[in-house]
Amino acid sequence: MLTIADIQFESRLFSGTGKFCSSKIMLAAIEAGGSQLVTLAMKRLDLTAKRDDILTPLLASGVKLLPNTAGARNAHEAVMVAQLARDVLGTSWIKLEIHPDPKYLLPDPIETLKAAQQLCDKGFVVLPYVHADPVLCRRLEEVGCAAVMPLGSPIGSNQGLATQTFLKIIIEQAKVPVIIDAGIGAPSQAMQAMEMGADAVLVNTAIASSRDPVMMARSFAIAVKAGRDAYQAGLGGVSEHASHTSPQTPLTEFLE
Amino acid sequence: MSFVDYLQALPTERLKLAQYSATSADVERALSSCEGSLSGLMALLSPAAEPYLESMAQRAAQLTRQRFGATIGMYLPLYLSNLCANECDYCGFSMGNKLKRKRLNLEELRQEIAIIKRRGFDSLLLVSGEHETKVGIDYFVSMLPEVKRHFSFVAMEVQPLSEDGYRCLVSHGLDAVMLYQETYNPQVYRQHHTRGNKQDFAYRLASAERIARAGVDKIGLGVLFGLDDWRFDALLMGHHLHYLEHQHWRSRYSISLPRLRPCTGGVQPKVALSDKGLVQIICAFRLFNPQLEISLSTREPAALRDHLYRLGITHISAGSSTEPGGYAHPQTQLDQFEIADNRSVEQVVDALKAQGLTPVWKDWEAGWINQSP
């Protein structure tokens, strides 16, 4: 069971709420995928209307909400959005995302660390979305983040685990859960992330933009489960030492 | 949680049993991917790995070359004092041993430094017996600036100090601290350390964490092999290393692998570590941790040392004296332990070069460190 800040999750597939053609399909997909944590952008909520077509059905469904700060371009804005989320939604959980770059939506490491520090100090459960930067992840862990969310490839790109080498280092070093976020475009990629030892994956575009989001969500759920099982069962090592049987210069002959 | 708690919570009996029942399949798995894996390290240190020693050595040599190149870092110990307020039955400096006790003064320190500099060294290891009142922080602070004027990299191997003590020494130029636990078995530890502050197993064990928090760049761990079952002691040192790397990732780590050798009034090893066992430890740690620095002192004989460089050793001493004032006035005091490799620095360097290895004398720029903006 995955635990983040004392909350346990049976499913290691986290979902998003953007890009769906209707809130009905969104809900059906979340249900089919079994996600227990879904993120939603505070900027998308219509807080003046009585009903919001994303929030109202989500609240009714009972999944845990992870509001995010998408749209914030610096630490100051992100902290404001987080405080708004806490006031409106009554949750101190926040997915911290700060991307000043409108083209690739890549996260700003400096502003993210700054905002994470402030939010942790204010008692938020902070899950920062970051580049697959092992040192940054350690720094975020040090300021008190509950998990780290490094990206596999640019958000929405479906390119999979382009940052694999660095994700492996992050997973090896992390003392908090590692959730691979962004870029996962196919169930096989989600499975690969889980086989590597990721604690969870967050998938949105690949599900929401598929022809059949409900069926795709179900496929991701199976893949995530299979990948996690394989990781726990222990994958066999890739052999690199077969050629050592007849070395040119023996190194231990002197012992005989 | 400190490593003291970690070790206490470790099911050591079960772990020991697991190590001795490791199979060749476990070893083969570890050979293909052991990096960062404590179960892999356990297999590689187990009796089951002995038939795989050549494969381990080939892989260790390749990893060492890939990470460190064809280089060996050169350092020299400078003994500041043989005063000691501990009774440790394996050590020549033990307080019960009758020998002339000496603490270098500034003038004597300068004489030693001049000789060591002439031999080309720029990396120094300051060593002393453990005598808190006469060879404590005040003495170190009074000597460090003179040392730091002549050496880029200064390590210390002295009694464990407080976190503030380490921080103070860092501000005076200290770069590294070597502090060996001797054994990770508290019962065995108690048997061998019968008087003095060193009896405090837990304080010594928690030292590496204080050193790391004080911002020391490099931390050296070590076991005195022979005090207890070497396979298991080495594995627990691996746990310690693993723990430290995760908790204190800004520090570099090194290990030393001293074997119990005869000394004045000393003890015989309980479980002697053979040359083959020493090779197994070096290779296992290299496969477990490719970036780990491994030092080799002149306790080991020349012929063996020359074979070990390529297997994973990264730092060596040469032409060492293990008595205070021993460079300027050889053979006046009793040594801490016997030196087995008596070759001069030139001879050792020639042996390195004959193997295609380059000695590295300077690997640090002291001026860059501790320059607060």
Automatic annotation (TrEMBL), chain A:
The keyword Cytoplasm applies. Keywords: Cytoplasm, Schiff base, Thiamine biosynthesis, Transferase. It is found in: Cytoplasm. Pfam families: ThiG (PF05690). Its main location: cytoplasm. It catalyses: [ThiS sulfur-carrier protein]-C-terminal-Gly-aminoethanethioate + 2-iminoacetate + 1-deoxy-D-xylulose 5-phosphate = [ThiS sulfur-carrier protein]-C-terminal Gly-Gly + 2-[(2R,5Z)-2-carboxy-4-methylthiazol-5(2H)-ylidene]ethyl phosphate + 2 H2O + H(+). Residues 4-247 form the Thiazole synthase ThiG domain. Coiled coil: none annotated. It is an enzyme of class 2 (transferase). The keyword Manganese does not apply. Catalyzes the rearrangement of 1-deoxy-D-xylulose 5-phosphate (DXP) to produce the thiazole phosphate moiety of thiamine. Sulfur is provided by the thiocarboxylate moiety of the carrier protein ThiS. In vitro, sulfur can be provided by H(2)S. Homotetramer. Forms heterodimers with either ThiH or ThiS. This is Thiazole synthase. It comes from Shewanella algidipiscicola.
Automatic annotation (TrEMBL), chain B:
PROSITE patterns: IG_MHC (PS00290). Keywords: 4Fe-4S, Iron, Iron-sulfur, Metal-binding, S-adenosyl-L-methionine. Coiled coil: none annotated. Its cofactor is [4Fe-4S] cluster. InterPro entries: Aldolase_TIM, BATS_dom, Ig/MHC_CS, rSAM, rSAM_sf, ThiH, ThiH/NoCL/HydG-like. Residues 256-359 form the Biotin and thiamin synthesis-associated domain. PANTHER family: 2-IMINOACETATE SYNTHASE. This is Thiamine biosynthesis protein ThiH. It comes from Shewanella algidipiscicola. The gene is thiH.
